[in-house]
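## tool: complex_structure
## caller: assistant
## args:
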Amino acid sequence: MLAHIVRRILSVAFTFLAVSIIIFLMMHSVPGGPFDANDMPVSEAVRAKMMAQWGLDQPLHIQYLNYMWGVLHFDFGVPFQSPGETVVQLISRAWIPSLVLGGAGVLIGAPLGILLGLAAALNRNSWIDYLTSTLATLGLTIPVFVTSMLLILIFAVWLNWLPASGWPHPNRWILPIACYAAIPLATYARYTRSAVLDTLNRPFVTVLRAKGLSERRIIFQHVMRNSAIPLVTVFLPMFIGTATGSIFVEAMFRVPGLGAYFVSSIEVRDYTLQMALMLLITFMYCLAYLLSDIAYALLNPRIRVGGEQ
Amino acid sequence: MNALMRVAGMMVAATALCAPALAQTAVVAPSGNTAGTYMDYMKTVYDRGTGSELLQVPIATFDKEFELTPMAAESWSQSEDGLTWTFKLRPNLVWSDGEPLTAEDFVFALQRAATSGYDFAWYWDFAGGIKGWKEVTEGTADVATLGLKAVDDATIEVTTVAPKPYFPSVTSLWYPVPKHKVDELGDDWALDVSSIVSSGPFEIESWEKSNNSVVLTKSDTYTGPWSPMIDRLELDPTLNAPEVGLPAFLAGDADYSFLNTGQVPVAAQRYPDGIRKNAVFATSYISYDLDAAPFNDINVRRAFYYAVDRDELTSTVLKDIAIPAGSILPPGYPGYNPEIAAEATFDPDKAKQFLADAGFPNGEGFPDVEIWYREEGGYNGAIIPAMAQYLQAEFKEVLGINLNIRALPGPEWMDGLRGKKNNIFIAPYEYDYLDPSNFYGIFFNGGRHGYIIPEYDEIIAKADSESDWDTRYQLYADAEQLMIDKGLIVPLVHPVTIAVVSDQLTGEGVQPNSLGFTQLDRLGHYFFTHITKQ
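## result:
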């Protein structure tokens, strides 16, 4: 197990390096630069001065090495679009709202989805099953900007129960959290339903029933555990995807989060921030799969690493 | 008894806590763009922090009726030869940290814009005409050679290369920069609320950089004209998109919101007295690479000019958000010439004839062309993509040609325009100051489009320094006629913004001016100092 983890960590390091080179090259191969004219011409002298100031006049490989040397020291540079702070400061500031809202969305949506999915599987073809399927389909097919608009319209404009948008006060968090929760809820309802149904049909469940175990023990101790693998696979990537903020949800609810920076850093060629965000995401996904692997082994002794049969 | 005392005590405390809040008038308004680097207009215009212009006092500004009004300056005068302008500052102007605001701060602002500024040098290059500007920005001359001088603490002298009779209106975008702060902290003074100082009617309280929203408060130290009637002003660019702004407005989170075409009828029905319009003094037009086929042929360009049904365009696809444009100058703008605008008719026969004259009868043999426009938000974002599709259909129908459409991010679009990487563009432009030289300047001597038309440049140079205003306007009219005759541009539409305003927002600022416009999205100095809230 330990050797496996070490191997995985090494592969993470390699992935990290490969991604950094690919992103760096792609980023610089896109035409344009951070100090190009936007609406009116910027003189060549001014542009050259700005490029030199940020070290962008140096050959690409030198820029890459300088950048990666910084990364090794946890220095990701200064974002061009927010010169008063470092990239690390920007990310740690802007990530908080995204993490709070997106994280809460997943942490609320996923358990609710599991409960719904379980209820649907245990009461197959009942109203609760149909309701779950409907909710799951709607949750996965309606785009978040439509969900947000509907939530705002119903709860802020018509009922006037909650504020429409904004960040600082917690009562403004409810609608975006609800919006974020829709996708994990729908996903988990679907996965849980099918995984549990699948497990319920397996012979060992019949054996357990024959042994006279209570239905509650069968479900929670055996069926749930055996159905957990797909749920674990989905969880971390979904958490990362949601807790780094959605540009749509954040724009609709006016959340000063990280979501918009993913787009704006590419749009304005904010190389330092773009690199840092990509590396952050890469790192988190690598870590997520590593953790998922470990969780598999803990959940299911049959998944053993090292080929012992 | 004890319990009674406690309740009474709590009530007193609660009243004390609530009282200042009740006395405050706070306005929440949509604003500008969501990216802001420096809270310093003179450092960067396109990437400025929200409200940076309201924090500083310009030399002059425009009032509700677009009349130029002195702000930091008390008066100004032009020398006999017309080459030197002298501005006298008001006494007792101070920075919010107590330092006196002097002529040096204004001179320094432009010296820095010319040397270590970023995207504002162009404005002073084409609008200001200050002596030595080009040489200094290109790095071939020392900043001391600029035609700018602080004669004493209250007197600024500006020397221009040619007489610039309209120079005072250019100064509506001349804000001071706190030299004492730059000496201490460099440009970084404008990065953090704790080090930002202001000279204008508002001070900064907080700045959320993730979306460039700010909370401004009424300045305690400002002694100039137009003191705010509100205590707090929250400017939030995330409210700027009508899709976000209107729901927030309806839920009581914003004091006004811009509207998209679909929202206008709903808002007009609910708030019949709250609808406001503003002509933003902007124009969308088609421009070309004049050297590249097929648009190097004047007949092709003329054909395009006559092939657009501007009335149909603005009454159908662009309902309520634009009016037809027949000239580069919008109606109501100084120098606007209705006769020239009237020439821009929709005449399919003429258009077909011009195209046939160019050797493409019924569009036969005409190459497929691709029109490039810039992806953006705001009113242009609502107008241009829809307009591009309309033009595509229209040119197919009238001229029999295939027009493809491509949307590009700002810098790539600009790069394509400047580097002549494509041959036809939709270009929007919004005024900077109120004088015809502003719009004509963008085509002068290469300018924004790389047009070099010696005949045109000659008229513009003459008009720029003409001191007799009637002669001047006539010269600009001649220049416009030349633009039309040579088919340099196809004026398409002038955008109009529509907003819904809460009935709690009162004051002269929210009342329409004599042209029927309310300045919700320009002339911030006037608007935000002339509103109050009930």
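## assistant note: Chain A touches chain B through 49 residues (CB under 8 Å). Chain A has a mean pLDDT of 87. Handing back to user.
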